[in-house]
Design brief:
heterodimer; A: mainly alpha; 14 helices; B: 121 residues; mainly alpha; 2 domains; 0% strand
């Protein structure tokens, strides 16, 4: 009889099923507990790792099966042009405040990352791994790879950053008296990308729209900024 | 039919993005070139929203799934992650909080200034 693990290796759908199952489980836990720690993406990653370790399946086997997910990452980035275009009116009307606000956040992120790299004595490759920490995973991951960093570690940092921003956003906005709904959305999107946007969507429509706009703009500004900042350390 | 055409548009723009990435010697992911191309096409009216909207919304809604494989890849990098534990903790909590505070404070000030300006008119 064939070993069960061999079957897993041959099935094209095993990887997809456990990935999506993990995501649904995360959704379920999030709904039940309302804790931001149960982020579906985080839970699905942990569930898949647990299953692979439990059955002794090599990561490359899973990676091969999950190719379809990787494959759709680039077009999903392209698709972000649609919400950006839909928010063109709000963008035009408040263009100065929005662009300066996001730009200062992106600059703060890049400058602080250089300082952090110097303080901890990171290598150049480790440094560029940290540069895209506040932007959306699709752009950040590709960015890190292009600059010679480690895409997987960048993804880890980005996801943990998003969850931290999602969890602490309300408190930080309260401490710094950020009350304007557009400003709250921009702050969440610039610092904690799509996962921060999830929190902004819960706060209200303006916050959500502004946060997703900030995700795209901060992503683009960081692409430009990171190429320059990569030369600094 | 609608879906085929919409996915064709997105796939074609993505492909053009890949070509630009090949030609332009910058560290810019293909998806960014594609995003800018699609945005330009929408702004100039070369493409209309209904021609891409459905497929784009689908891709955005399902976006988190596409990060799962990269996240699972962490299991092969565990050593590096634990060795970078301190900078990761600083980056995640300290820098994220400052970025949030800076973005929110700066944009709020400018927004309020803009609103006051409008009232003065």
């Amino acid at each position: 009889m064939k070993k069960m693990t061999d079957f897993f290796c041959e099935s094209a759908f095993f990887a997809l099923v456990i990935s999506l199952f993990g995501y649904e489980l995360g959704n379920f836990l999030k709904k039940k507990t309302k804790l931001p720690l149960f982020h579906p993406l985080l839970i699905s990653i942990l569930v898949v790792i647990a299953i692979l370790v439990l059955f002794g399946i090599d990561y490359r086997v899973y990676e091969d099966g999950a190719k379809i997910l990787n494959y759709l990452l680039t077009p999903s980035m392209v698709a972000l042009a649609v919400p950006l275009y839909r928010q063109l009116e709000i963008l035009k009307k408040n263009s100065l405040a929005i662009s300066v606000g996001i730009l200062s956040g992106v600059a703060a992120s890049l400058i602080l990352t250089v300082f952090m790299a110097a303080v901890f004595g990171l290598t150049h490759s480790e440094y560029v791994t940290f540069l895209p920490k506040s932007i959306t995973t699709a752009i950040g991951m590709a960015m890190s790879e292009e600059l010679g960093g480690s895409a997987t570690i960048t993804v880890a940092i980005i996801i943990i950053t998003g969850i931290a921003g999602n969890m602490t956003g309300d408190l930080i906005c309260k401490i710094f008296k950020i009350e304007d709904r557009i400003a709250v959305g921009l702050a969440l999107g610039t610092s904690a990308h799509a996962i921060g946007t999830a929190r902004a969507m819960e706060l209200g429509e303006i916050e959500g729209a502004m946060s997703s706009l900030a995700v795209v703009v901060a992503g683009l500004l960081t692409v430009a900024g990171a190429n320059i900042f990569a030369l600094f350390y | 039919m609608k879906w085929v055409r919409q996915f064709l548009v997105i796939a074609a723009v993505t492909f053009l993005g890949e070509m630009l990435r090949y030609w332009i010697p910058l560290s810019v992911p293909a998806g960014i070139y594609g995003l800018l191309l699609l945005f330009l096409c929408l702004c100039t009216g070369i493409l209309k929203l209904p021609q891409v909207e459905g497929a784009a919304d689908f891709l955005i809604e399902t976006m988190p799934f596409y990060f799962i494989p990269a996240g699972v890849g962490l299991m092969t990098k565990w050593g590096e992650i634990t060795s970078l534990f301190a900078p990761i903790a600083v980056a995640v909590f300290f820098i994220t909080a400052i970025v949030m505070a800076v973005t929110g404070t700066v944009s709020q000030r400018l927004l309020r200034k803009g609103k006051r300006g409008e009232k003065d008119d």
